[in-house]
Amino acid sequence: MPEMKIILQQWRRLLGITRKDIKIYYSKGPVVISGILFPIFLALTFTIGRNLPRDSVITGLVGMTLFFAATSVSPMILPFEAQARTLERLMSCPVRLEVIVLGDILASFIYGVAISLILIVIALFLGITISAPVIFGVAILLGALCFAALANIFSVPPTNLPATTNMIGTLVRFPIVFISGVFTPLDQLSGWGRAISYISPLTYFTDIARHSVQNKGYLPAGLDLAVMAAFTTLFVLLAMGLHQRTMTRRI
Amino acid sequence: MNEFAIQVTGLTKRYQQVTAVDHITFEVKKGELFGFLGPNGAGKTTTARMLTGVIVADEGSALVMGCKAGSLGAKQISGVVPEMANPYVDLSGWDNLMLMVELYGAPPKEAKKKSTSLLNDLGLLERKNDKVQGYSKGMKQRLTVCMALLSDPQVIFLDEPTSGLDVQSSRLIKELLGNLNKEGKTIFLTTHDMDEANQLCDRVAIINKGKIVAIDPPEKLRLATSRLRSVEVSFASPVNSEALARLPGVDSVKKQGDKYRLYTAVPGDLVITLSSYASSSGSKMISCNTLVPSLEDAFVALTTKEVKNA
Predict the structure, then answer these.
(1) Least packed by Cβ within 10 Å: which of A47, A192, B83, B298?
(2) Nearest chain B Cα to A8, which residue?
(3) What strand order describes the sheet that includes B18-29?
């Protein structure tokens, strides 16, 4: 029972950290606008001149938006906070270290979902239909959590320079987009291309998005969700475990 | 019942080859205002950070009100004012306090009342809705103190809280510390400022190169440094300082402008000797004062001795 009380207490404190992150880092005009514009421009570079069907572009665009939104700010939060000495404040509060990490992940998750929803609403206005909304909804939630946890791992090196973790993030994020079959369905990839794409969690999200919007995913939707859940668990555990090792070295 | 608020045993922290804190042991009684003094790099901040759970000790143990330092239990009953003021500059003063309410799980209604009262006491109430970005250094530090006190902590750790502040902010913080101590709060204060330690602290520990070199009440520390007692004398005409050094009871002589400072263990006897010296040498004595060492003198003597020994 006392353990349950502590868990509830820590959960409320986690929400406090999430609210703080959203206020300070995510609810800024430039962050929201770049969260929407950046994937759109990236999608244009992939699709212009390729005469891809509209629903195929939308699935890729939602995948990229969710991925970039959920991974954009999170890698820089801990270095920023270490630099501003606010991390020392957080660490002296009665909050578990894992709660600080999970609070950052949750803020990133909320931002990722919110930005993707804006795009989905636009897509619905443009006449795109989602045939499996529940599966698509679950995939968005799971994908946002998965990518947010992945982004949190980028900030594990105990540096106080946000530019360093941002660089690490960029080095990982772009290759992931290129290997994930965002605008080329898995069945159209060559054998080795498909094999490489399986190491990326984004592959499974875009496959579910195709199931939900185009009714033609390559892998079974259940498998996609299961693999994404496995990636999410792995990334969350890694983020918490690795930060445990490096967090005090930031002070 | 345990009479100690803080118990530290063999606490050690190493950074690669450097031992920042080297097996220190001390206790702070409940309700005590304990000063932790030391020169830059002596290990004061590292000790405070280990006690507040920001960093982990390599060896030894520390208890805060019987809870392991750094545990949720210890953090819950501690208030921390770190070396550098660290509120969130993108939030308002009020939002920073509300964040602390959430992180300490304080009851919101009472916490809001307490926030208003603390902001008022520390002269920040009118600016509570302004972003901290626009606050002066003193205002940020006062807000940090408010943030530390919001949860009504039993033990308060302050790391050089008045360093570099204007006189008004510094005085406000010192007054508040005095009042908190009267209310029975235990205060662990690291400082450079000897006057601050002298005025506020019940006991002080002096740390140098990671080791504690003395723990005593400030007055006792001052007087214990007996070889620093001195007599300051000036004469109408110049006198030979070597002759003064040869007088009985004089350990050493230092010329300071038109005055001579004679260090001695027996200042009373030396005043009589100086009077005889003045009449026998024909030099008229203009002034003669006996001086007891200040806490600063004791601090310098203790830390310099350590450096020489090293």
Answers:
(1) A192
(2) B105
(3) B18-29, B4-15, B59-64, B67-68
Contacts 24+ apart (CB under 8 A), B250-255: B251/B227
Put simply, whether B99 touches A (Cβ < 8 Å) is: yes
Q: What is the pTM of this model?
A: 0.85
Contacts of B281 (CB under 8 A, 6+ apart): B239, B243
CB burial of residue B103 (10 Å; 0-12, 13-18, 19+): buried
CB of B45 closer than 8 Å to CB of B195: no
Its domain, for residue A54, covers: 2-250
Task: Give residue for tokens 């004062």.
Answer: B289
B-chain CB neighbours of A23 within 8 Å are: 90-91, 95
B103 shares contact with chain A (CB less than 8 Å): yes
**How many folded domains does chain A comprise?**
1
H or E element: which one contains A191? helix A191-197
CB of A91 less than 8 A from some CB of B: yes
Asked if A13 and B103 come within 8 Å (Cβ–Cβ), the reply is yes
Four-CA torsion A151, A154, A159, A165, nearest 10 degrees: -80
- At B253, phi and psi to the nearest 5? -130, 135
- Closest residue to B104, CB basis, from A84, A86, A94: A94
Q: B65 — contact with chain A (CB < 8 Å)? A: no
Name the residue facing B80 among A12, A86, A92 (closest C-beta). Answer: A92
Of the candidates A101, A95, A54, the one whose C-alpha atom is nearest the C-alpha of residue A74 is: A101
Q: Does A23 touch chain B (CB under 8 A)?
A: yes
The pair of three-digit structure tokens given for residue B267, joined into one six-digit string: 């200042």
For the record, the structure tokens of B38 come out as 């030391």
Render each residue's pLDDT in chain A as its tens digit; 251 residues. Answer: 568 889 999 999 999 999 999 999 998 888 888 888 877 787 777 777 777 777 778 888 889 899 999 999 999 999 999 999 999 999 999 999 999 999 999 999 999 999 999 888 888 888 888 989 999 999 999 999 999 999 999 999 998 898 999 899 989 998 898 888 777 788 888 888 888 999 999 999 999 999 998 888 889 999 999 999 999 999 999 999 999 999 988 88
Parallel, antiparallel, or unpaired for β B33-37 and B203-208?
A: parallel
- Residues of B within 8 A of A20 (CB-CB) are 88, 91, 99
Distances in Å between the alpha carbon of B26 and those of A161, A165, B17, B50, B300?
Answer: 37, 41, 25, 14, 21
Residue type, B70: G
Q: How far is A232 from chain B (nearest CA, A)?
A: 26
Establish if B67 touches chain A: CB-CB under 8 angstroms.
no
CA distance A60 to chain B (A): 35
Please give the Cα distance from B102 to B98 (Å, whole number): 6
- Inspect the interface and report whether the beta carbons of B88 and A24 lie closer than 8 Å: yes
Which of B75, B90, B102 minimises the CB distance to A92? B75
A92–B147: do the CB atoms touch at under 8 Å? Answer: no
| Cβ partners under 8 Å of residue A219, min gap 6 | A186, A204, A207
